[in-house]
């Protein structure tokens, strides 16, 4: 497999490196995406050879689907809301379990332009769940809807690559 890029989502991203790292480690990934609505899966799938590592993904844009498809606890959704660290963590775990993958990536947030439930545009929670590893990070992104969604996607790919390589969080 080469590290060639085949589309605008993969160009300049770490997606090709992620596919190679997952393949070389014999691991797979699945996604649960809210604000990115499938961009992370599409980015990974844009890399030749992705079928060996990408199990699938859940687009859970609606709050009720975060529970019914990804298994986020209804009490977490009611108490903390769909845009929270706990929701992102449970989405990542849900993607991993429901799709039978080694790693789960989750993104939930507000792309804007308006705040949602008092949470400002650009607030994003990224959840990662893998073998013996779960972490959530809060991102504060800027720009228009597309830029926020695209930047969140790039961050998700880069952070999962870091995890698959066994590197520590440096932020």
TrEMBL record:
SUPFAM superfamilies: CinA-like. InterPro entries: CinA-like_C, CinA_C. Residues 14-163 form the CinA C-terminal domain. It comes from the Bacteria. This is Competence protein. It comes from Nocardia jinanensis.
